[in-house]
Amino acid sequence: MAEQAPVRYLTVLYDRDCPVCVRIRNWLTGQRQLVPLRMMPAASAQAWRRFPKLEHARTLREITVVGDGGQVWRGTDAFVMCLWALAAYRAKAEWLATPAGRPFAKAAMHTAAAVRHAVRTKSEAEPGEPACDDHCAAPR
Q1: Residue 66: per-residue pLDDT
Q2: How far apart are CA 130 and CA 2, in angstroms?
Q3: Which one, out of 1, 11, 83, 100, has a CA that is 20 to 30 A from the CA of 25?
Q4: Predicted TM-score of the model (pTM)
Q5: Distance of alpha carbon 104 from alpha carbon 99, whole angstroms
């Protein structure tokens, strides 16, 4: 079996027009990182150039993290990877990745989606739909 190279950095694609996403981005960048997190606006020209094969519309609906080796994590897995990169949350992330912790990671993602839905100013989404179909409006 081939040995995998260690992850040197992660790129976090975030919705720059979503106040919740921007706040989480700012929180992540303020934490001590064991693996550097590079922040990039989702579906931006920069993201299209850097990741041409990525489903960019999906990155606005679902947190997406890309490893330096081309690995892609979405949703709950992306959330866990962000925590795994942080010094203070590595152990928690490792637990959230287990079968016992997975339901808690999913619950955190559902909570974040609900908060994101609540801050939308132009929402036509029905309960149970994705929190942001394209992106949520930032408060002015």
Answers
A1: 98
A2: 38
A3: 100
A4: 0.81
A5: 10
